[in-house]
Specification:
The chain is an alpha+beta fold. It has 19 helices and 10 strands. Strands 1, 2, 3, 4, 5 and 6 form a 6-stranded mixed β-sheet that branches. A two-stranded antiparallel ribbon has the order 7-8. A hairpin with a 5-residue loop joins strand 5 and strand 6. Helix 3 packs antiparallel against helix 4, helix 4 packs across helix 6 and helix 11 crosses helix 12.
């Protein structure tokens, strides 16, 4: 299916439209001559037939513009990230070297392209999970935060574009979809890119478990009208109470993703009708940063005074945010007609962090990454370098999926550990001498062994 790159009329129009839109969005960050140099290099690659269609018959230049639009809209990357994405097909197919890019666009663009190029070289060796190559693939992700973000956006875009591919590449489509589910979706989750994570999961389910996907999709369509009417009935009195309290806010109802409904059906061994929390209500408060927590808890108090809360379903990421920056209050309440409804309360700023993940923290600062994520990435790197392939992959997936636990000292100091950490880990975290000599501990005033696993909220 690969072959000389001839643009169809539709491809030309879409590429030009995306080019103009992206240029307008990142114009303030571009340097003099960037546009002309990039256009010249891309045209040179096309005219000398050095860029060919991919295995799915897709146009790599158009794909790069679609991915660039995604990294601008969803992640907020600017000049360096966008130029790297657009020049990538030329570098991957040998029409352009990373050194040429460095001399024309600078070190930062070249570094991102180097990371992307390494990943491409590893893909050409067909890495399988238990192989050395797969570990190298994961390691190369950890070079520069933007390489990871671009790879996630690139996979979202590829998953969107392969829906209509012909039967002779079904095997490749399944491989791309499996990887989206076990590698890219958990990466997106860890980085707080929840929208992209959901799309990757939904599309991989659509391609890998066609019948399950369409069964849930059809059921959601059938019940949409009654669901929308119920959301309206739930929201109206809440909205009135929040307005009376003088809060500035907006509320939206959001149906859970098809993938998360499918997971619930499997976990609870029930039919579609047996999944009770098909949607969540999100209250987004417009407030200055110094009043954020106060007003979120105020909204929480108003909602739980109207609808009976389920205390087991309270998730407080307001007091202790997740390590990817996610902040929100989640509570499940008993709404009209005795239906359980999940309510999420957050501010406009928190909502942007939730939608755009880690990028929302640093996209304006121009820094390489956040320290917390740097720590996480360097942990992955050292873990991958010291363990064998399968064990490393299992640990990597656990590291991606599992949340942290937060525990207190008697003085109230807060420490964060990976889920599964023990009292002994806590002792060594305080000091190696304590770890070496410790014989037991108290958790919440009860004597425990050194093997006792830590739970969030424990005082040790």
């Amino acid at each position: 299916m690969t072959g000389r790159l001839e643009f169809t009329t539709q491809e030309k129009e879409e590429t030009l439209s995306l080019y103009q839109k992206i240029r307008d969005q990142i114009a303030p960050t571009l340097k003099p001559g960037d546009e002309e140099r990039m256009r010249h290099l891309m045209m040179r690659a096309i005219e000398t037939n050095q860029v060919n269609r991919n295995v799915f018959g897709l146009n790599p230049i158009l794909l790069s513009f679609q991915t660039a639009q995604l990294v601008v809209d969803e992640i907020g990357l600017k000049r360096d990230g966008v130029l790297a994405v657009l020049l990538r097909p030329s570098v991957e197919q040998g029409a352009l070297t990373v050194d040429e890019v460095r001399s024309q666009f600078g070190d930062s663009v070249a570094r991102i392209l180097h990371g992307l190029q390494r990943i491409q070289e590893l893909y050409e060796k067909n890495p399988v999970v238990e192989s050395e190559n797969f570990r190298n693939l994961l390691l190369s992700f950890a070079e520069d935060m933007r390489v990871i973000l671009i790879m996630i956006a690139d996979r979202v875009n590829l998953m969107r574009q392969i829906r209509d591919v012909k039967d002779d590449v079904k095997h490749q489509k399944a491989g791309v979809s499996e990887e989206a589910a076990y590698l890219y979706a958990p990466l997106a989750h860890k980085l707080g890119l929840y929208k992209m994570k959901s799309e990757l999961e939904d599309l991989s389910l659509k391609y890998l478990e066609h019948d399950a996907y369409y069964h849930i999709k059809d059921k959601l369509s059938e019940t949409k009208k009654s669901r929308d009417a119920y959301i309206e009935r739930f929201i109206k009195p809440v909205s009135e109470r929040l307005t009376e309290a003088g809060l500035k806010f907006h509320i939206k109802g959001r149906t859970k993703s098809i993938h998360s409904i499918w997971q619930k059906m499997k976990k609870q061994k029930c039919s579609f009708e047996g999944v009770y929390d098909l949607f969540a209500i999100r209250i987004i408060i417009d407030t200055p940063i110094e009043k954020e927590k106060m007003q979120c808890w105020q909204a929480f108090a108003l909602v739980t005074s109207m609808y009976q809360p389920n205390p087991k379903r309270l998730r407080d990421w307001l007091s202790v945010p997740k390590s990817n920056g996610y902040e929100s209050l989640h509570i499940t309440v008993l709404g009209p007609e005795q239906k359980w409804v999940e309510v999420q309360i957050r501010t406009e700023r928190m909502d942007e962090v939730a939608e755009r993940g880690v990028a929302a923290h640093w996209r304006y600062k121009g820094v390489k990454s956040e320290s917390g994520l740097d720590d996480w990435l360097s942990n992955i790197r050292s873990m991958l370098e010291t363990s064998d392939g399968l064990e490393a992959m299992a640990q990597f997936k656990m590291d991606l999926y599992e949340d942290e636990v937060f525990v207190f000292t008697p003085k109230g100091d807060l420490y964060k550990f990976p889920k599964g950490a023990t009292v002994l880990d806590f002792a060594y975290h305080i000091h190696s001498k304590i770890g070496n000599s410790c014989v037991g501990a108290r958790i919440n005033n009860k004597v425990v062994t050194l093997r006792q696993q830590l739970q969030s909220g424990d005082q040790v």
